[in-house]
C-alpha cells in the first residue's frame, strides 16, 4: 500500500484540484496540505478521518507515512535535538 501522502497526491491530481481547492475541501490551510503532501507533516486523527470520509484513503495509510517520516527524522538527526517552544 502507498503512503497516505502519495495516495492523497494521486487523488488530488486525478481530480485536477489545486492544493488550495483541496485544502478548502478538507478544512485545513493550503500550507498544511502542502506539508502533508511533501511528507513534512501528518494529518491529525480527526483530519485523517475527514480525508478518509471524503476520499476513501484509509486512516491506516497515514501510519505508512508516519513510519517514513520517523525514518527521515532519525536520518536527519532530529531525534537528537530538543524541541524549543517560543
Task: Output the structural class.
Answer: mainly alpha
Q: DSSP strand (E) fraction?
A: under 5%
What string gives the helices and strands in order?
HHHHH
How is the main sheet built? none
What is the CATH homology-level superfamily? lambda repressor-like DNA-binding domains
Distance between the termini: 38 Å
Rg over C-alpha atoms, rounded to the nearest angstrom: 14 Å
Secondary-structure arrangement, i.e. CATH architecture: Orthogonal Bundle
Number of helices: 5
Helix content: 55-70%
Domain module tally: 1
Short characterization:
This protein has helices at 4-14, 19-26, 30-38, 45-55, 61-75. It is mainly alpha-helical and 86 residues long.
Plain-language structure description:
- The protein has helices at residues 4-14, 19-26, 30-38, 45-55, 61-75.
- It has 86 residues and is mostly helical.
- It has a single domain (4-74), classed as 434 Repressor (Amino-terminal Domain) (Orthogonal Bundle), CATH 1.10.260.40.
- Helix 2 crosses helix 3 (30-38).
- It is globular, with a radius of gyration of 14 Å.
Amino acid at each position: 500500500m502507498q503512503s497516505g501522502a502519495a495516495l492523497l497526491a494521486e487523488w488530488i491530481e486525478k481530480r485536477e484540484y489545486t492544493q488550495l481547492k483541496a485544502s478548502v475541501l478538507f478544512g485545513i490551510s493550503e500550507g498544511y496540505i502542502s506539508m502533508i503532501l511533501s511528507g513534512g507533516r501528518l494529518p491529525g486523527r480527526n483530519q485523517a478521518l475527514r480525508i478518509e470520509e471524503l476520499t476513501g484513503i484509509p486512516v491506516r495509510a497515514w501510519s505508512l507515512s508516519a513510519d517514513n517520516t520517523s525514518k527521515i527524522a532519525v536520518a536527519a538527526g532530529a531525534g537528537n535535538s530538543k524541541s524549543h517552544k517560543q
